[in-house]
Amino acid sequence: MNLAFLGPQPADGRPKLPGSLQVNRRLDQWLRMLPEGVVVLTPGKVELGQGILTALAQIAAEELDVALPRIRVQAAATPTSPDEAVTSGSLSVQESGMAIRHACAEARGIFLSVIAQRSGVSRDDITVRDGDFLAPDGRLLGSYWSLAGAALLAVEASPDATPKRADQRRITGTSTARLDLPEKVFGQPRFIQDLRLPGMLHARIVRPSARGATLLSVREGPLPGGAVIHRDGGFLAVLAAQEHHAEAAALRIAARAEWDARDTLPEQVEDWLAAAPGETTTVLERAAETPDPANRISARFYRPFVTHGSIGTCCAVALWEGEVARIWTHSQGIYNLRADLVKAMRLPAEAFHIQHVEGAGCYGHNGADDVALEAALLARANPGTPVRVLWTRAEELGWGPVSPAMLVDVAAEADAGGRLLRWSQHVTSNGHSGRPGRGQLPTLLAASMLAEPFAVPNAINPPLAGGGGAQRNAVPGYAIPALQVRMTHLAEMPLRTSALRGLGALANVWAIESVMDEFAAASGADPLAYRLGQLEDARARDVLARAAEMANWSGRVRREGFGMGLAVARYKGTGAWCAAVAEIEAAERVLCRRLWLAADVGEVINPDGTLNQIEGGAIQATSLCLLEAVQHDARRVTSDGWESYPILRFSEVPRIEASLVARPEAPPLGAGECSMGPVIGAIANAISDALDIRLRHWPFTPENIAKAP
Amino acid sequence: MSTSFHLNGAAVAAPIEPEASLLAALRGPLGLSGTRFGCGAEQCGACLVLVDDLPQFACTLPVSAVDGRRVTTVEGLGTAEAPHPVQRALLELQAGQCGFCLSGIQIRAVALLREVPRPSEDQVRAALDPHLCRCGSHNRIIRAILRAAEEMAL
């Protein structure tokens, strides 16, 4: 989804460099030394609560040979930070981490050469200890800090730097505590929602009564706290000096606004998916002659629209100063956001200085970018005055981008021994990326509501080589002679769709792993043995065997009302491997009681942080498949509160055991999304085990279970 | 137009309309942003505070309701130098991801441990049910509260 999304770099004759260093080649874009003994690290990836800044600091400290507390990680900002596109796709360690590893190794080498030359001590005899360069007799020859002013890093990286070998690493591979967590625990201002600038106005947006509605009129009337209205076409907002006045005023204006509303949303999403126009493409095709099958399975899996559900609502602050708009945002991609602000506001890129500030976890493309445009529009109308926009819970759940509803049609054949012969998978979906910065039109919500509106661009599915969207993980990881994978990208988009953690992988892995269980049952095989026999990928077999062992799969005992299931996938077909075993209890509704997870993410920078991500993804996946579906009527999303869009609560959360397969020599692969598909597949199979039904409809509620064949 | 109460041990007067929410008073004129806005409808627990030692949702509680009473927010529980046992345990177990839900959860935990000093795991889960966490840090948070209970019982 990130740099990989751009595809291969143009052959400009310059040497290939690791990760984002390829497109941000100067070392001083990544780090600088301060005389007081500090390394300032300036990645372009941003903290989302996943602990990336801590992992990057570990990598830098490791290669530079400085103590970790010396690393000060600076949040990304335009125009100075390296452009690392979007923090998404479980790619930050690969892209930013490997750039920083290389850049820091090279920086260390440059300082070493200069100090060796100046001191006359051979490079090979100098040791670096916490930033000090020492002669064999312990004499201090110099330091990063003593040469901080020498501009030694104002150079392009070369391909020659040699980072440490796996067996030389001491800081990476350890469970360092998160750098950002203490301030969050102690309630200190750190989130974008906490940002307060002198003289700042608080704004609220008044949303249309329906999708695509146009604003006819707003009745005049008194507003609390001197609140004032801002109107530009159908973009309607209110500003006040005090936040609660803006909040109250927005409610009053909503009651006074008259909209021309019409029906735009499908009555029945599953039927609409099957009937809507779209473009069908082949993702992968492998022809083979196969014998007559003993078993055929053909099934349609339906997943509804689901959404991000951040606990904190979207927020941005903007200040228009002369020719420059300063914008504080929790966007996952500040340069991408800038590109769409340029289009939506018809201004040059230089007009925007964008600063990342941490927000609540977003799990993909939520309204963070949308609210930044809204703040910018209001700041432009109030030059010199900072404007803060905060979304309500109803906006967060009702107006942010949603993750597409999907159909996954599988038709597969196996021989009498259960061996797979043919597999066809057809995914029907809207695009899984409506992120800004990638097309001709801005994707930001307010852009379509202005007096001079922009059309809403259809969300896209990036190519499989870039991770894919709807087709992510649509290619089964099993040995299958004849394979056909197709995708229908729908041409109409009733609800604005975009990326949610895992994208199409969740529905695809669910479908594949369900069908695998059905074939196992048809041939009388155990689901574990059946899979192990058809997985050619040794690392996939390893995680599956590990998870099964953790869960005592072979010794499991059937209990009335309980079921167990398992599933495995390699995320995107190119990322981390993960296997899950689930135990569910089927009472009035289904609860997932326990999960056992085994993952192989290659080299692990921070084991505890990685486990936290894997476990977090597993719980979010449990919530998504057991409870979640966006509800709407013909005009608007109606699941705009936590009662109508429930997510998993503490007493419903499964107990989890997770473990990592150690591969210190293997390239790191990212951990944030790999557990989600396997967990959903394992839960579905566990429900089948308990109730002897096959789930075809998400979420796995009593109502949908009742529909199951 | 102001309401006087004790906030984290100090006497304060909040210059805001009495019908405004306690959350608006805290995050606005009183300048304490540790108490979070999450939903405004008592459904997520992000805004939980203690009023005279009892947990209350600050998002819907009118500030007039705390006139003359004692209010404790996350900022009043502890500091980096002198953390509350719940805070120390949360950090020791790295029990959080984005951290947005943790202010309200800490307040709930402190209220629970005052009522039930040695809760069972199921009691902790049940007590936390009014709180939402979207990152999936639930199990770590539960373990941290149990660890804090152990420490406080010593």
TrEMBL record, chain A:
Gene3D superfamilies named among the record's database cross-references: Aldehyde oxidase/xanthine dehydrogenase, a/b hammerhead (3.90.1170.50), Aldehyde oxidase/xanthine dehydrogenase, molybdopterin binding domain (3.30.365.10)
InterPro entries (alphabetical): Ald_Oxase/Xan_DH_a/b, AldOxase/xan_DH_MoCoBD1, AldOxase/xan_DH_MoCoBD2, AldOxase/xan_DH_Mopterin-bd_sf, N-heterocyclic_Hydroxylase, OxRdtase_Mopterin-bd_su_IorB
Pfam families: MoCoBD_1, MoCoBD_2
Record-given protein name: Xanthine dehydrogenase family protein molybdopterin-binding subunit
Domain Aldehyde oxidase/xanthine dehydrogenase a/b hammerhead residue range list: 186-263
Species assigned in the record: Falsiroseomonas frigidaquae
UniProtKB/TrEMBL annotation, chain B:
Alphabetical UniProt keywords: 2Fe-2S, Iron, Iron-sulfur, Metal-binding
SUPFAM superfamilies: 2Fe-2S ferredoxin-like (SSF54292), CO dehydrogenase ISP C-domain like (SSF47741)
Gene3D superfamilies, per database record: 3.10.20.30, [2Fe-2S]-binding domain
Domain 2Fe-2S ferredoxin-type, first and last residues per copy: 1-77
Cited Pfam families: Fer2 (PF00111), Fer2_2 (PF01799)
Transmembrane region(s): none
Entry superkingdom: Bacteria
Name of the protein in its database record: (2Fe-2S)-binding protein
Organism, as annotated: Falsiroseomonas frigidaquae
